[in-house]
Give the backbone structure.
Amino acid sequence: MTADLFDDTPSPYVTPEVIAPGAVLLRGFAREQAQALLQAVEQLIAAAPLRHLVVPGGHSMSVAMSNCGTLGWVSDRSGYRYSASDPLSGQPWPAMPACFAELALRAAAEAGFNGFKPNACLINRYQPGARLSLHQDRDEGELSAPIVSVSLGLPAVFLFGGTRRSDNPARYRLLHGDVAVWGGPSRLAYHGVAPLAEGDHPRLGRQRINLTFRRAV
Ligand code: MD6
Ligand code: FE
């Protein structure tokens, strides 16, 4: 049988792709769970709506965010922090669905981090033009645990640099169902997302949804 050069159906997950010490891409790892994950996302954001957080400098982020789990990442004029309740409602964040926790545990183990039990999951929605500038995830307190990041919907260009801001980041195209895991020597690596290109995803339309799992304290 000849390979069809015009078939752009992604291939199934094969093996981790090491991008730095302690950092891997698991391409297609979450593709089979994507539908279940997205159904859960719809319920979660009905309870705790996506919103554009204000950063300490005073402008609002282009990425819209919500959270599930016992702790959620929030930002306002006074700074970044983890909070047990949604500032919009004053209620606890919705519980982390079992399918989220199971996927994050399996992905971390595949990357060499056994026993990952996230207690925080940030839900990020990117629409065309939304971006995330280079940053470190350093508000967690528990830096021995990795970050697990699941991409759904439109493709994005993920920027992954070193532990110094001046390290020039490499660029990786992340597709629906791809998972990135970084921990150990890469836990404080600078990373970001380039402005999302226009597109129309069969399931999500003009959106990319990213789930980022952490162990916060
Ligand atoms: C991504 N997201 O969307 C990676 N970090 O592929 C992040 O690194 C991230 O979306 C902190 C807060 C929100 C994020
Ligand atoms: Fe981040």
